Amino acid sequence: MSALDRVVKPKTKRAKRFLEHREPKLNENVKNAMLIKGGNASNTVTASLKDIYALKKPNCILYKKKNMTRPFEDQTSIEFFSKKSDCSLFIFGSHNKKRPNNLIFGRMFDFHVLDMIELGVEKFVSLKDIKSWKCPEGTKPLLIFAGDNFEVNEDYRRLKSLLIDFFRGPTVSAVRLAGLEHVLHFTAVDGKIYMRSYKVLMKKSGCRTPRIELEEMGPSFDFVMRRTHLASDDLYKQSMKLPKALLGKKKKNISHNTFGTKFGRIHMQKQDLGKLQTRKMKGLKKRPGDVTAVDQESPQKKQRN
Prior knowledge:
23% of the residues lie in helices and 29% in strands. It has helices at residues 13-22, 43-56, 76-85, 149-152, 154-167, 233-239, 244-247, 299-304; strands spanning 33-38, 60-67, 89-94, 102-109, 112-125, 142-146, 182-189, 192-203, 211-216, 220-229, 254-256, 262-264. The strands form 2 sheets. Strands 1, 2, 3, 4, 5, 6, 7, 8, 9 and 10 form a 10-stranded mixed beta sheet that branches. It has a two-stranded antiparallel ribbon with strand order 11-12. The model has no long low-confidence stretch (mean pLDDT 84). Strand 4 (102-109) and strand 5 (112-125) form a beta hairpin. By secondary structure, the chain is α+β, with helices and mostly antiparallel strands.
């Protein structure tokens, strides 16, 4: 048994609360991310990590010291930092002659690496280079993905899922109009991924709904996809599995249409319409001298029946 897998019993109440905070829950906490700098990092990589840290705060940890590791060759260091800091997302930045200005986006499952996608930074504009108003810390962004590759190509589809996990922020039940302040736009075209960050400006429109304008606030990235390390279909399906308590019991014979209207199907026994009680009226009463259709049947037909 390794040092990471051994069971630790708390000796103080503070340690007990700390371990309870890390226990599995039906509704998990917000995913934290760690930003790690490799042994050789350029100024572009360092500035990129700082700007992504500014977007992701407060659910993010920035490691300032250099770490001599290579995630695609040895993942033990990344898994150790994930267990230590309770982070399920990470970005590893490095720079070398073969792969300059390199960012590795990854996520963990049960403190083991699930997916890793390596992106090269071809063009970068930092937050400081764009003079405009910035969004406050902790703002939940709107995520927009443009490009057929995000739906057709498996690597791009997994990258889209990874970016959603990384930038989605906390799960909320409702959002007010004034809270829509930040937009992250990802475009996949011609083998490149363009990431742009905008601030939402709400201006007067003469009606109740304001006129929306987008102002670029940074950071701005032009990525190119390099290496990928994707989980198998079985492991990926296992990581997406929801607990039974969240699924709830399925209600039979109940359906909803596209507008959310609820429909129910009722099963009833077959009714005998001959015994159906109708409204009693003098005109519907049978008189002694009246002849019905049954009485008019021929005696031969009755005999056959």
